[in-house]
Amino acid sequence: MNTQDPASAFSLGGPVHQALKAALNDVASMPLGENRTWALRGLASMLMDKPEALRLAAIEQCPELALATPIPDTHLAAEEVEIASRLTPSQLNAVDQALVAGSISTWRTIARVVGDALVTLEAESLAPPLGVFIQRVRLLVQEGQLQARGNTEFMRLDEVRLPPGCQGAA
To answer: What domains does the chain contain, in order, with CATH numbers?
Structure first.
């Protein structure tokens, strides 16, 4: 059993740092172009909520990472757009209901709420792309069914809750 402190996993020289260095070496060996740009954007996304020392070490190894725009969780790949376009209004309503049902009166990360909704909808054999869930959370916030704080494009960096007076999950 590994009893290592989770924070040390992200320390310089730790396993996450080592994996990041390897990933940055892979990106550095890629030719300039769209694939390299997307790889850098993916790494920038992964680093968004990680310790500053880890992010700075990555940027030191690969300066172009500092300019990479993170990929929002709302992003859908071409095949996901096609799947999402086939969702019916009743399926989207089921997604919305699962998201609201997984919310409570105190703040929860969007990742937690989406995870609960995924489990709920799995029983109904409904599995929209992950980005659809994040898009629906944003819509629910705009409609006032949920409140948010943070950046709703990134499910690890934002929290949602039910508005005061609403009932949700226990």
So the answer is: 6-67 (no CATH), 78-161 (1.10.10.10)
